[in-house]
Amino acid sequence: MTATAPAPDPDAPDAGASADLVRRARAGDHGAFAALYRATVGRVYALCLRLEGDAARAEELTQDVFVRAWERLATFRGDSAFATWLHRLAVNVVLGDRRAAWRRERRVRPTHDALVLEGAGVAPAAGGMLDLDRAIAALPAGARLVFVLHEIEGYTHDEIAAMTGIAEGTSKTQLFRARRLLREALDR
Amino acid sequence: MTHDDHTHDGPADDAAALAPLVAALPRSLEPPHDLWPAIADRLGPPAAAATTRGASAFLARRWSTAAALAAGLALAALSSGATAWLLRRSEGAVAAAPAGLAPGEAAYQRTAAELARVLAARRGELAPATAATLARNLAIIDQAIAESRAALAHDPGNDDLVALLYASYEQKVALLRQAIDLPRKS
């Protein structure tokens, strides 16, 4: 699967500085890892918030992402930018959390497609969110996942299918549904 | 961003209407609270990297079993001088993993290298066809390991890839172990 690079973050440290921080963090330097955190937490939190639609859960997942990144720093070989590596790690952490939730959910009621949990949608998160972000947060989980990964993060349907375990056609259907629900929400 | 679907007017209208709004979304949002103190509290020593949770921890336990078996067989096959050498090497195996490798992965590599050395000393004892087959199989496993490592470099949080990587190492260790146990000229 091809990892899609996130858009450049103007606040991210340049490649040389980032490589130095990564090298120091791998050696156990918490200060260097804190600097990497400061430079990248906005992107990670935004991703978690949009995928989850819940600010408190997004904060928990953001913490999980950075703890996992610390644990996995030894596997970062520098083939891609640290921000790209971290972004993909964050997607995997959120999807892993979704799978765990799906397994819990499946014990209660069967579903036909992994990760397509059709709840009533979460309540829009409060505080400083744009209208579109609020509408995204209110989408059903499956539609929100596909919309964020495809429309905001730039993953293709086949990449989403491979990452999430849903069929490519399901991904397209969820995107169609998400767009329609968002337009309806924004036109109200 | 990709727009590879929907040619009907309705869905196309939806996509067109949302595109500028999506483009205007900030890609970075600061969390309402400083998360660093809670994160810092959860950071272990760097030596804990890559074998700490979930599948990685499970695989690390599997590595311990496989390595113990492999080391035991290797020791049985070695002369007393070489045994002492291997023991020294094994004691050194607790050192930090080389850069870019998970600690468990480095341990697998060391065990495979040690078994390969034992096998190399027996090279003349294997039938040529057996040796050739063994070499081909090892090359296939090495290719699988290389592909898993490359995939992990692009997809670092993927526990399935970690599992594949370690399964390939286990295959390599098992194959080397089996080859060492083969009777002469088999």
Question: What's the structural blueprint in terms of helices and strands?
Answer:
The complex is a heterodimer of chains A (188) and B (186).
Chain A: H1 15-26, H2 30-52, H3 55-72, H4 82-108, H5 131-137, H6 141-152, H7 157-164, H8 168-187
Chain B: H1 9-24, H2 36-42, H3 54-77, H4 80-92, H5 103-121, H6 128-154, H7 159-181
Q: How would you explain this protein's 3D organization?
A:
Chain A is mostly helical. Helices cover 68% and strands 0% of the residues of chain A. Chain A is built from eight helices and no strands. In chain A, α2 (30-52) crosses α4 (82-108) and α3 (55-72) packs across α4. Residues 1-8 and 110-128 of chain A have low confidence and may be disordered. With 186 residues, chain B is mostly helical. Chain B contains seven helices and no strands. The model of chain B is unreliable at 1-8, 47-66 and 68-99 (pLDDT under 50). Chains A and B meet through α2, α3, α4, α6 and α8 of A and α1, α2 and α6 of B.
Q: Low-confidence stretches of chain A at least 5 residues in length (pLDDT < 50)?
A: 1-8, 110-128
Q: Mind describing the biggest β-sheet of chain A? A: none
Shape of chain A: elongated
Number of strands of chain A: 0
Helix content of chain A: 55-70%
| Cα-based radius of gyration of chain A, to the nearest Å | 17 Å
| C-alpha termini separation of chain B | 59 Å
- In round numbers, the mean pLDDT of chain A is 81
Proportion in β-strands of chain B:
under 5%
* Alpha-beta classification of chain A: mainly alpha
Q: Which range best describes the helical content of chain B: under 10%, 10-25%, 25-40%, 40-55%, 55-70% or over 70%?
A: 55-70%
First-to-last CA distance of chain A: 39 Å
**SSE order of chain A:** HHHHHHHH
Global Rg of chain B: 24 Å
Features:
heterodimer, A: 188 residues, mainly alpha, elongated, B: 186 residues, 69% helix, disordered N terminus
